[in-house]
Amino acid sequence: MKLLAIDTSTNACSVALLVDGETRQRFEITPKAHTTLLLPMVESLLTEAELKLTQLDALAFGCGPGSFTGLRIAAGVVQGLAFGADLPVVPVSTLAALAQQYSNKPLSFVAMDARIGEVFWGVYEKNADGFVELIGQEVVAHIHDLTFPPRHAVGIGSGWAIYAQALSQHTQGWVTDIHHDVLPQASAIATLGALGFHQGKSVCAQDAQPVYLRDKVAQTEIERKNAKLNVENTP
Fold first, then answer.
1. Is the dihedral of CA 33, 38, 39, 45 positive or negative?
2. How far apart, in whole angstroms, are the C-alpha atoms of residue 74 and residue 133?
3. End-to-end distance of the chain based on CA atoms, in angstroms?
4. pLDDT tens digit string along 9-61?
5. Phi and psi, residue 131, nearest 5°
């Protein structure tokens, strides 16, 4: 399996190349410099491995949640690479990548800061093969509206730094280990991307789109209000 993964969902810019189980990575924390560094990182890794883009099996990218601008950059670049080399793309959740990269317990509560008192939230459990699996759904929500299984877990993500006291109180002591100063890495995107490829989760280039959890919430609310109006206006 040969797969190239990219992630620009946060202040970090990273690219990873997975070749037959071995991963090489470029990783830099570079706010507002993603567009400058991303393609040189790709070229550097491919040159180092003596591979051409067309020799890969697939691409993967961190599809969100995260920075709107960063997600658009990753999606745009991966679409261009995929179109040019006729490769499938595997979208990978950045919350899942954080859980895969940093979890040292079977269960992870991942919380990335979404501002205005909210977090991007996902609960992940590692299976027998060491891959994280989502429990329930990823959401953007106010801290006090979160739901989680009452089990001991590791807390991962920037939300655990910014809302440390509130999250600790809300999770009622179930979280005893916290990794808050961490960012998604393309190496984890590559690991989960390869898994997703084998599970048939790849998409064509034009369908490699960012996932904006807040947009989903807004759209759901619009649909709910429209449905209510339709009911009220029905004779």
1. positive
2. 23
3. 60
4. 999 999 999 999 999 999 999 988 999 999 999 999 999 999 999 999 999 99
5. -105, 140
Q: What pLDDT does 216 receive? A: 47
Query: Which residue numbers in the chain have pLDDT < 70?
Result: 215-235
Nearest to 178 by CA among 111, 94, 100: 111
Alpha-carbon torsion (192, 193, 195, 201), positive or negative = positive
Per-residue buried b or exposed e for 195-231, using 16+ beta carbons within 10 Å of the residue's own CB: bbbeeebbeebeebebbbbbeeeeeeeeeeeeeeeee
Scored b (16 or more CB within 10 A) or e, 100-120 reads: bbbbebebbbbbbbbeeebbb
Kindly report the pTM of this predicted structure: 0.90
